[in-house]
Amino acid sequence: MVHITDKKIVIDDLLAEVGTAASGALNIFVGTTRNRSGERSVLWLEYEAYVPMALKKMEEIEVEARSRWPVQNITVVHRVGKVDIGEASVVIAVSSAHRDESFKACRFIIDQLKENVPIWKKEHYADGSSEWSMHQHEQPVQA
Amino acid sequence: MVHITDKKIVIDDLLAEVGTAASGALNIFVGTTRNRSGERSVLWLEYEAYVPMALKKMEEIEVEARSRWPVQNITVVHRVGKVDIGEASVVIAVSSAHRDESFKACRFIIDQLKENVPIWKKEHYADGSSEWSMHQHEQPVQA
Amino acid sequence: MRIHLLFFASAYDLAGVREATAELAAGARTGAVRTHLKSLDPRFADWGDRMRFAVNREYVLDDQALHDGDEVAVIPPVSGG
Amino acid sequence: MRIHLLFFASAYDLAGVREATAELAAGARTGAVRTHLKSLDPRFADWGDRMRFAVNREYVLDDQALHDGDEVAVIPPVSGG
Q1: Inter-chain CB proximity A30 and B15 less than 8 Å
Q2: Which residues of A touch B31 (CB under 8 A)?
Q3: Which residues contact B60 (CB under 8 A, 6 or more apart)?
Q4: What separation in angstroms does the CA of A17 have from each of A27, A76, A95, B132, D74?
Q5: Chains meeting A at 3+ CB pairs closer than 8 A?
Q6: CB C80 to CB A90 under 8 A?
Q7: Interface ipTM
Q8: From CA D33, how far away is CA D45, in angstroms rounded?
Q9: Taking the CA of residue C55 as centre, how many other CA atoms within 13 Å lie in the half-sphere pointing to its CB?
Q10: Which residues in chain A land under pLDDT 50?
Q11: What stretches of chain B show up as alpha helix (H) in DSSP?
């Protein structure tokens, strides 16, 4: 299941959604907003999405992950709007019978999301200025 | 920080412990008790630990993970005593500036824990019998 | 033909609008949109190939044929996660 | 010399006690504990090398020299996680 929300992400609620009595492993990735960007002090973040396409790409990534690994439940939530420092901007939770699949599928989903889902982050700095993030992405790692 | 507890693990409490405003990534592995073991129906699980040595090995694993990857906070909690189906038996949370380290360190910790920490699981079956788990471990995967 | 343009994030900052229409010659491909944007503001060229286009919510290459009524989104380098 | 033995999980099921002491010849190594356990219950041999020993809370090989007062834990195949 994929979601885009302008509300604070409550991780416990997601775990209730993704956990099952049949799963033995659950891997969760939480992307949180940092108070530094390079040398600059960041006060808060703002996320914008091309919502219908972002949801479509997130669903495609979920389908692709399921075709690669025998996982049970997948939940992907991305925040939009203002996000305070230390809050979750994205949470991905993958349950599976064994741990290997949950790690690999979760990693695949965050890598794909950062490359291909039309969502943008704007950093608001302590000096009053702001900028859309143009950081070169980390290279996706094949686990 | 490493813990062994006979209380239900509250994931939100761990996240508060492990999250910082400086971390951008958090990877969490949750091992949950399954209702099946091979063909057998499992009613509940029981974990026993050689507590002082288990804590020592968990601490050594944390130190080793920190020497391999630049992570920020690490929390490892393992449950002992009776654990109901679907509950967490182990939770590992690793925060770091970037996602790659959090995934790799978390995976390393659960692989090492399953190989080397003196903790044992007993499965209690629907037919009234019970058995200490002797499953061959999954091979650790080098991510 | 007429296409419907969408601008997000830094592309919105350059365009000054979230939506616009553009008239393109019959048979135009996505590359023509790139040229059109550069004529609106040369800074649209700064991202080079890192500025992608989505036609009807799917990424396309510059040689993608466009059709009247297409929704063409200008996708600056994404930074979600 | 006298060592202090600890039994956990399935090793406890075989030994019937959580703790015991054992008298070993001076200069005995951990392998002597393996032999001692087999004499108590031959099923201790079933796990082969998968049954490990920890001396003073550290895994050791069978050629580890033991000392009077050592805490020797019998570690059946672990299954935490």
Answers
A1: yes
A2: 24-26, 99
A3: none
A4: 13, 11, 10, 31, 41
A5: B, C
A6: yes
A7: 0.90
A8: 11
A9: 16
A10: 137-143
A11: 11-18, 51-68, 99-116
Which residue in this structure is represented by tokens 């790690």? A103
Q: How far apart are CA B57 and CA A95, in angstroms?
A: 27
Tokens standing for A139?
């290279």
Chains touching chain D through at least 3 C-beta pairs below 8 angstroms are B
Judge contact between B18 and B24, C-beta under 8 A.
Answer: no
Weakest-pLDDT range from B21-30, D15-24, D60-69: B21-30
Structure tokens at B105: 């360190």
Tokens of A93: 């939770």
DSSP state of A141: -
The closest CB to that of D57, out of B52, B121, B122, belongs to B52
A29 burial type by CB count under 10 A (0-12 exposed, 13-18 middle, 19+ buried): buried
Q: Would an 8 Å CB–CB cutoff place A18 in contact with chain C? A: no
Residues in Cβ contact with D48 at an 8 Å cutoff, skipping those fewer than 6 apart: none
Q: What is the pLDDT of residue B13?
A: 78
Model pTM?
A: 0.91
Task: Specify the DSSP element, H or E, that contains A105.
Answer: helix A99-116
Name every residue in B having a CB less than 8 A away from some CB of A: 11-12, 15, 19-36, 85-86, 95, 97-100, 102-103, 106-107, 110, 138, 141, 143
* Residues contacting C19, CB < 8 A, separation 6+: C4, C5, C6, C7
In angstroms, the separation between the Cα of residue B29 and the nearest Cα of chain A is 5
Quick: pLDDT tens for C2-32.
999 999 999 999 999 999 999 999 999 999 9
- Token pair for B114: 């399953």
What pLDDT is stored for residue B21 in this prediction? 66
Q: How many CB atoms lie within 10 A of CB A106?
A: 31
For residues B96-105, give the mean pLDDT. 96
For residue A67, the one-letter residue type is: S
- Give the residue carrying structure tokens 């061959």: B136
- Residue from B85, B14, B81, B80 nearest B43 by CA: B85
